[in-house]
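This protein record is not my work; I was only asked to verify it. Where you disagree with what is written, explain briefly why. This is what I was given:
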Amino acid sequence: MHPASTPMDWFSHPDHDASIMSAWEHLIGGGEANAGELRCVVDDSWRRCLVARVDPGAGAAPPPLGQDGLRARREKNARLVSTSLPLIQQTHEFLSQTGTIMLLADPDGMILQQEGDMRIVEPAGEVGLIPGCDWTELNCGTNAIGTALALQQPVQIHGAEHFCAGIKRWTCSATVIRDPLDGGVLGVIDVSGLAQTYSRHSLALTVSLAGRIESRLAKLAMERRLRLLDRCASHFGSLRSDGVLVLDECGQLVKANPQAPAALLRLGVDTALDRRFSVPGLGIRQAGAAVRPAPDWLRLARLETVREVGETLGFLLVIPAVPQRAASGAPPARTAPAPAFSRIVGNGAALRSAVEKAQHLAPSRVPVLLLGETGVGKELFAQGIHQASACAEGPFVALNCGGLSRDLLASELFGYAEGAFTGARKSGAAGKIEAANRGTLFLDEIGEMPLDIQPHLLRVLEEGEIYRLGENTPRKVSFRLVAATHRNLRDDVAAGKFRMDLFYRIAVTNIAIPPLRERKDDIPALVAHWLTHLCERYGLPLASFDDDAYACLLAYDWPGNVRELRNALEGSLLMADGGVITVDKLPLEIGAAAWQGDAARAEPAAAAPPGAVYSLEMAEAESIRRAVAYSGGNLTKTASHLGIAKSTLYQKIRKYGLAAALSETRGRVP
């Protein structure tokens, strides 16, 4: 398997065309290509094409969509098209003299727009480099659009490096366009021409243009969100007890008030309110996203669509302090607030020691730094400290410093004055620090905070005063700070990545929260707790694990900690039949422990030569081999059965040398 590609692997080498062509002929003839003749991105792509049985003799992309189909694709990707098209059109004069065309494709490899030198439109049409044609690797073999999508990085494919014979007279450069909010792939920008137009600068052009498109998307998204927040500002009064969430046009969280987590919990929704939170079934579905129904709890809340000049900006979700009656008319159950730290499950010595330290520190107002890996429950500790402190009657305000851009983090943290930047709300806006006044501010992943923001936070902690962005008048604030990180901040201080003065200010006291692999004795209690909770949430009878599945849970190391355990339990429960959860319902990486156990119990002479050692990789390879056989060699069904992406399956087939087994299985299928 090749190592990860480097920027030097992005560029083609046209002077190697003859040797690359020879390697291709040898490969499709059943031999092994000489890897020394190929860049690793090309070698890997060719092998993906072989596994997927792409026709190496293909001369063009599949036929294009009709006008209605293309129109529907463009509407589905309207945000990408409307943002990109003006920038693409600006390149027309330049490209018209170069013998090349620029193409915009969606996340599925479907070409949406074309611009450039009209002299090559006809030869481009002959191979399908036109709007409406699908250029994924599965359809057209190795090519810049499809391979950039497969790798999610810039790539240049020249001449003989293409997998399909009919496309080898072309040269192309492409890179992906990412969503500035969540990093997802929105599409691809590509420059293509006949082989004699080859230039390393083509790839630089696509990367530069993709960056401009992403910057414009970020600016438009920020302006849109600020207009949305401006329309919803009146619902964020400090005295209201309703939970309030503002969601964008795709249902993703923009802002929530401090009462929102407790309000959601009353409806049975126990989740972190961060940038990953979304409500399915609302508004515009993002390109490439699966259709998901709206959750049942949504009918217990008040949902308003926020529009501006007929355009949907987003949604306002209000969860009343006293929930509405469900459709059945039955009144919702009322629950008293849980005691501090009661949601932290486990009695292991390391965990109890951390909880006792937190209980001891809670009554004071000194800052606390929580140390622990992702998923160990740092926010639960922060909420427990808040509930057991003198600030318990005040708000608990959480902010993840690692999930926001520098500018957005600054405005979220400190707020801003009227006119502080383009699109700023007329009356300005309070930040998280002000929202936490007389309460607790929880800053998660504080080690990700940019260096130039850190002095401003330090000043707030030292002076008890805050300046909104664009203001010269300080505002008095009083709050308890609880910070958290998975990083070693002492190392970051030594490396100049974190300010020493801020470190000593926030780390007056610290609490180390142990990872789940160091407190496996707590797994039975956590399993019982979450199974009960999840069965109640979904209205299911209490379920249980059979012996083999339960042994897998106990044997697994849980790198994602309690969060991973909870997700695994939820997914397994929803897949279970008859209230008993078996090994095949567990995630692949956890269930693979069962195959390892079976191998260990087998007779050594029958299973492996003397001295052989069974490993998790052997178990995973066996799982894949069985799934391939079960699916009759259909890789789509195999990937679905294993619960992994098809691209991941290709990588594992190559990694474990299972291509021969795949071919043999397909040969047996009538």
About this structure: Confidence is low (pLDDT under 50) at residues 285-290, 323-336, 596-614. The chain has 26 helices and 18 strands. The first strand starts at residue 100 and ends at 105.
